[in-house]
Amino acid sequence: MTDLTASLAPSDYVSDDVYRREVADIFERHWLPVCRVDQLDVPGARYAVDLAGRPLVAVRGDASIRVFANVCPHRGSTIVEPGQGRGSALVCPYHRWSFRLDGSLVGAPLAEGLDLDGVCLPEVRHTVWEGFVLVALSGEADEPHDALAGLSSAIAPWRWSEMVTVASRRFESTWNWKVMVENWIECYHHVGAHRETVEPFQPARNTRLIDSGGAPWAAMTVDSIDGVEGPPDEWMPGIEPSMAKDLSVWSAFPLLLGGGVSRYGFWLQIEPMSTVRHAVTWHLVTHPDQLDRFTTEAAEATMEMLAEVHREDIQSCERVHAGLASGLLDRFTLAPLEATVADFQRWVRAAMSPAAD
Ligand code: FES
Ligand SMILES: [Fe+2]
Fold first, then answer.
1. 342 alpha carbon to ligand 2 midpoint, in Å?
2. Would you call 172 helix, strand, or coil by DSSP?
């Protein structure tokens, strides 16, 4: 029997103390997504994010990818703007100290005679899983590949490591990051939040949850109505006819949210900022074989369709936040299609050190 016990209380979503402990116990100690390898396609390409107040920048040097603190060792200014960028060096806008793509200092203006030995950008440990550049802020996490092996097989037909990004769109969110994750990892809400948009095509009742066996991920498929799969020559090359109608929805805890249909994939990057704020960036991806179909206009049209659904999720998450912040609810009651939410809450609870009283 699936365990539907909720391990978190509504107050865990609105408490600054809980968020502080999540930063230390969850965000510092587990693998978090920075970008995709394909977003660092040429030497000098970079992608900057802010993960729970840790500004980071992933860069491609001549051969390798590295992730650095996006914090200037001079006086602490952040160096590059969030999102994608390009340049042969990282130049701090404050006093124009500049750094090579290996993090070493190129030079500092008007600083002749100053001993700058050892001044460089601190590197953050990273790994690559399914084409995602993931970082471990504390440097201590075990490599994620074993723990995510079951998820890798569940999403194998999409051949995620080969996917390339065709469009991105960022949304500001004014609710707790866990509400966002939980909203993503259940398709039960198709019956309510998306009853006129997604539900007619991907009905909640067609959800098939995939058992993670307690591993740090959640995944499911939703069988779509006929016709949604489109013509086979537009499918991702690993998609078989038997799965072409599947909507795939998944998450690698804590922050990586992904999904796909026969013709493309998408992933959401969550950048937590505080107890009640985070940014969500949607990235639309496809297989290089299908790139021709994704003209700028076509990519934007697909992104707009996804954004329409996301705007419905924004409304739902805002409503949930209002309820959780009210203090009028003391526990959740999870339904069978929310076994993944129960799994996520158990994972969060287990990752957290107990509150100091
Ligand atoms: S803080 Fe970066 S150059 Fe001064
Ligand atoms: Fe949704």
1. 17
2. strand
What is the Å distance from ligand 1's center to 106 Cα? 13
In a domain? residue 140 = no
Residue 11 sits in which domain range? 1-26+147-357
Q: Are residues 89 and 232 in the same domain?
A: no
Question: Do 183 and 49 share a structural domain?
Answer: no
Q: What does the mean pLDDT of the chain come to?
A: 96
72 within ligand 1 shell (Cβ under 6 A): yes
Residues 6 or more apart from 137 whose CB is under 8 A from it? 27, 28, 29, 32, 51, 54, 124
**Residue 115 sits in the same domain as residue 255:** no
Q: What is the pLDDT of residues 22-80, one digit of tens each?
A: 999 999 999 999 999 999 999 999 999 999 999 999 999 988 999 999 999 999 999 99
Closest ligand to Cα 94? 1
Instruction: With a cut of 70, say whether residue 357 has pLDDT above it.
Output: no
Assess whether the C-beta atom of 99 lies below 6 angstroms from ligand 1: no
